[in-house]
Design goal:
The protein is 8% helix and 44% strand. It is mainly beta. It has 2 domains: 82 residues, no CATH class; 331 residues, 7 Propeller (Methylamine Dehydrogenase, Chain H). The chain has a 4-stranded antiparallel sheet with strand order 3-2-1-28, with no helix packed on it. Strands 4-5-6-7 form a 4-stranded antiparallel sheet, with no helix packed on it. It has a 4-stranded antiparallel sheet with strand order 8-9-10-11, with no helix packed on it. The radius of gyration is 23 Å and the shape is globular.
């Protein structure tokens, strides 16, 4: 005897796929399909999903939690994601499913995005696109978004375009957790007020829906986990905080000791970390504190990373967080006065490094990266970093592979790069 609700579900979902749902297959990183929160993805969750199947955003039956792919419809994309979690409890290993992680590296001057498998660091393809500057994926990795110098592109992970929107000065990208909107920083002309800001892209309507003017040169951007706020690093020594429900500026945090260009956020949204393009500092902002007119008291900690040598200049150009927020990874270069062998006089010397900052103790470990370390990305498992660097400033840029457990450079990618400017990762379960 087939239960009534199961008979109802089979009307919505073909029987061949229904049986597939009950197999214990692959394991996703998180059990998003545990809709009722009982710790197991089971038939109770399936019945809830079946009731919402076919619903679109705005309809009474639609629920954002059932739209696992974030495409605005509870459809077969969501069904397959649900099936991958069926029968699982948190922490379980899948019955044969394996994670496949690919790294995407945007090269501005080569007009392409390189795709590599992280298991062997061999090429898995390229995407031809004019001057890519920023990359982002949808929550499930089913869609790739690219900000090029004059266009925003929505694409499949293999680069096939879904649509493109003209957007002059597009820089970095963040995507809302529900996959409905993309937010793109636009540098603009520093001499022309109002040209820089944040473009809002409606991904369902496939068009730009709003533009929020911001002062100076907006650059790096992160969103809170709930998608309610955006934090934008601004080269006018500010962190701009935006209310995304109202699509308006909420606050502005003055950072007197730094020029922030990159920003990272803890998984719980409680801390925001800022680099400095003109100093050795990493600032930590408490997102829960309401500050004064400039919110200055929200900088709850500042880490100084430079060494005892005499410094002429230093900069932290990019940063990333470990999944537990206990470590900050930062690419850095310093111009110091150092005495070379055979000389008694100190001379200006460039030092590039990957910094590993222990947030709890303030201790900094250093991995030498030639004379300049620029862009970086940390793999989802936290074991490997990919760092753009120069052995000497007279040589071209390479991408080093760094083992974060041994804290050693294990090699460089077998690709000739010109100007890699962004690194992102995509994880799928097969």
């Amino acid at each position: 005897m087939i239960p009534k609700r199961l008979r109802f579900a089979s009307v919505l979902i073909p029987a061949c796929l229904l049986s597939f749902a009950f197999q214990v297959i692959g394991q996703q990183a998180a059990l998003k399909a545990d809709f009722n929160g009982n710790g197991t993805v089971d038939f109770d969750d399936f019945f809830l999903f079946a009731d919402a199947f076919g619903a679109r955003q705005g309809e009474a039956r639609f629920g954002a939690k059932f739209d696992l792919s974030g495409n605005g419809t509870v459809d077969f994309d969501d069904f397959f994601l649900f099936a991958a979690d069926f029968g699982k409890k948190p922490g379980q290993t899948g019955g044969g499913g394996t994670k496949e992680v690919t790294v995407y590296i945007a090269d501005l001057l080569q007009d392409r995005v390189h795709i590599l498998n992280t298991r062997d660091n061999l090429s898995a393809g390229t995407i031809q696109i004019v001057q890519p500057r920023g990359l982002a994926f949808s929550a499930g990795g089913s869609a790739l978004y690219i900000a090029s110098v004059d266009t925003f592109h929505a694409a499949q992970p293999d680069g096939r375009r879904d649509f493109s929107v003209p957007l002059n000065g597009a820089y970095k990208v963040a995507v809302s957790p529900d996959g409905q909107k993309a937010y793109v920083t636009k540098e603009g002309d520093p001499e022309t007020p109002g040209t820089g800001g944040l473009a809002v892209l409606d991904l369902r309507a496939k068009k730009q829906s709003n533009f929020i003017p911001l002062p100076g040169r907006p650059s790096g951007i992160v969103l809170t986990p709930d998608g309610g706020k955006a934090y934008v690093a601004n080269q006018t020594r500010r962190l701009i905080i935006l209310d995304l429900a109202r699509e308006a500026v909420k606050d502005s945090l003055l950072v007197t000791n730094a020029i922030p260009t990159r920003v990272a956020i803890s998984p719980d949204g409680g801390r925001v970390y800022l680099n400095s393009a003109n100093s050795d500092t990493i600032n930590v902002v408490d997102t829960a504190i309401n500050g004064g007119p400039e919110g200055r008291d929200r900088v709850v900690r500042t880490f100084a990373t430079k060494t005892a040598e005499s410094h002429l200049f230093s900069a932290i150009l990019d940063l990333a967080l470990s999944s537990d927020s206990s470590r900050v990874y930062a690419s850095s270069y310093r111009l110091i006065l150092a005495t070379t062998p055979g000389s008694s006089e100190p001379t200006p010397t460039l030092v590039g490094e990957l910094l590993i900052l222990d947030v709890g103790t303030g201790k900094v470990d250093r991995i030498l990266m030639g004379e300049n370390a620029v862009t970086l990305g940390v793999a989802p498992d936290g074991k490997t970093a990919y760092v753009v660097f120069q052995r000497t400033v007279s040589e071209g840029l390479e991408v080093a592979v760094v083992d974060l457990e041994t804290k050693k450079v294990v090699g460089s990618l077998p690709i000739a790069f010109d100007l890699p400017v962004d690194i992102k990762f995509r994880t799928v379960v097969r």
